[in-house]
Amino acid sequence: MTHVLTALAWPYANGPRHIGHVAGFGVPADVFARYMRMRGHDVLMVSGTDEHGTPILVQADSEGLTAAEAAAKYNRIIVEDLDALGLSYDLFTRTTTGNHYKTVQELFSTLYGNGYILQKKTLGAISPSTGRTLPDRYIEGTCPHCGFDSARGDQCDNCGRQLDPTDLIDPKSRINGETPKFVEEDHFFLDLPAFADALNVWLDTRTGWRTNVLRFTKNLLDEMHPRPISRDLDWGVPIPLEGWIDRPDKRLYVWFDAVIGYLSATIEWARRSGDPEAWKRWWQDPEAVSYYFMGKDNIVFHSEIWPAMLLGANGEGAGGGEPGPLGKLNLPTEVVSSEFLTMEGKQFSSSRRVVIYVRDFLERYSPDALRYYICSAGPENQDSDFTWAEFLRRNNDELVAGWGNLVNRSIAMAAKNFGAVPEPGELEEVDRELLGATRAAFDTVGDLIGQNKVRAGIGEAMKAVAAANKYLADTAPWKMKEDPKRQGTVLYTVLQAVSDLKTIMSPFLPHSSQRVHELLGGEGVFAPMPRIEEVDELDAGEGATDGPYPILTGDYSDVPKWESVPLAPGTVLEKPVPVFTKLEPSIVDEEIERLNS
Ligand SMILES: [Zn+2]
After folding, report:
1. Mean per-residue pLDDT for 441-454?
2. Where is the Methionyl-tRNA synthetase anticodon-binding domain positioned along the sequence (predicted)?
3. How many CA atoms lie within 13 A of 469 on its CB side?
């Protein structure tokens, strides 16, 4: 048994999330975590909403809310959506907790103490008319990279690049249109060049990474510069240094605090579990492994910056040093990055309304219909395009006509003719072949999930489904009324295959696997689901949220093993209700119209 940290990118809490987000990392990471638990590993799946930084403030302004109110609003929506999709987080929390603030400041202090945080003079913007600091988000100008004319002082919403206010062409104050004055100010920088050698050595030990991630990261290491980690901002984690901690206009940069969330969420989980030291099993045990899941726009933070921060906190950069109070921390085992999901040929964009929100999707379709699409056609190794026509085809022709039909036909026939799982007679060659094929699928599918090849994994599972459907067509048990013994053997064989396949399908399609388990007469929880819990803040004081907040958590300790379990003849079977719903072709036009309206 290994301790497996499954770390998912933190959704940004400035609006509801669309299906592109959950396609990139949410569902693939959940497939991995569910499988690893079934293999007997001690999995901890953590994340939360990323709630600091400019876009939250901009969204809050536009809704007449405070930043804290806006973050709380979207945190709750995102928690509910991820729950509905069945993502089995051990803890999904948020970055506006006292525990997170404390962990971030502790890591900052360790990095600072080890000499990896530089204080440098940079140009900061002030308003000429008031003489006050002008926060980054209130400066607007043309992006030097893509020419977008409404880029903000810290980020371009068009090309996604991080910016400094001085990068903007023709900067203007969004408050009164005046041109800001730039004056020298102190800011903090992470000394990335001090980690170039250590990162290179570490990267050379990585195996099994997707080539795009490895190539991208190696290119990054060729050109490293100190990276700013503080901003002119009034919303974020205060800088824990004398002369800085009380300044309301200086905060740590949102990305700096967000990546520390993986660690702080594990600590929060341990504290809530009643064993506050338990987090160390995933972060300090040298045998523990950690898998980070994200979209490709976030690779840099997970393959370069976060490992650099961990090296620095361990005292393992060029400047040496000592581990801080959190001890020596594990670097990522693997950074699993996905590509982008486009929609009907366009980039997802909330502002241009090219978007399908998770919530809207799940109001009309089942979570497993979405999970099936993502698993079989998601942006695993290349950008992929979501189209409603393809969703309809995969749902009707593959999920309903393939897996759903196998479940329905085999259980219905056995229920009608025997009222139970029949007692098998002697197996013939063709029966043994089918059972051998489904048993072999445990190895092939499992190996693929273990390598985060979800598309190939579900493809192999569907091949085993096709083999079972072919077996039914070839043996035609409905024609065996005169030979109930052989009919019972054939139906027993196919039911055993269905039982094995519900196990193999459960990391991908947990909701329907639970249903198949029940249709086969099984009791209790087969594919455990997360639950939303309202919890109280653990720490009063700075960063503490007001009142209870929702987390996602769950008890996944009792998962079935990743293996074939013999069905018990005589188990009572009822006429099944179909597990999946066939969709009308008219949904394609309806959905496209909805998108364009
Ligand atoms: Zn740009």
Report:
1. 98
2. 421-542
3. 17
Under 8 Å between Cβ of 141 and 151: yes
Query: How many whole angstroms separate alpha carbon 19 and alpha carbon 360?
Result: 10
The residues, any chain, with a CB within 8 Å of residue 188's CB and separated by 6 or more, are 117, 118, 119, 120, 228, 229, 230, 239
Interval between CA 187 and ligand 1 midpoint (Å): 24
In this predicted model, what pLDDT tens digit does every residue of 336-363 receive, in sequence order?
Answer: 999 999 888 887 776 667 789 999 999 9
Q: Is 129 annotated as a binding residue?
A: no
Q: Ligand 1 centre from 594 Cα, in Å?
A: 29
List of residues 6+ apart from 277 with CB closer than 8 A: 270
SS3 content of the chain, % helix, strand, coil (to 5): 45, 15, 40
> According to the 3-state scheme, what is the secondary structure of 401-447?
HHHHHHHHHHHHHHHHHCCECCCCCCCCHHHHHHHHHHHHHHHHHHH
Q: How far apart are CA 9 and CA 506, in angstroms?
A: 23
Which distant-in-sequence residues (6+ apart) come within 8 Å of 468 by Cβ? Answer: 406, 410, 434, 438, 494, 497, 498, 501
Distance CA 256, CA 254 (A): 5
- The pTM of the full predicted model, rounded to 2 decimals, is 0.94
Q: Is 275 exposed, middle or buried (0-12, 13-18, 19+ CB in 10 A)?
A: exposed
For ligand 1, the distance from its centroid to the CA atom of residue 179, given in whole angstroms, is 20
Closest alpha carbon to 97 in 425, 443, 548 = 548
375 is in an annotated binding site: no
CA of 533 to the centre of ligand 1 (A): 40
Question: What would the pLDDT profile of 28-61 be if each residue is shown by its tens digit?
Answer: 999 999 999 999 999 999 999 999 988 898 899 8
- How many whole angstroms from 160 Cα to the centroid of ligand 1? 6
Token readout for 443 is 């190895």
Lowest mean pLDDT among 11-15, 162-166, 418-422, 542-546: 542-546
At 595 the pLDDT is 83
Question: Angle CA(370)–CA(376)–CA(377) in degrees, nearest 5?
Answer: 85
CA 257–ligand 1 middle distance (angstroms): 24
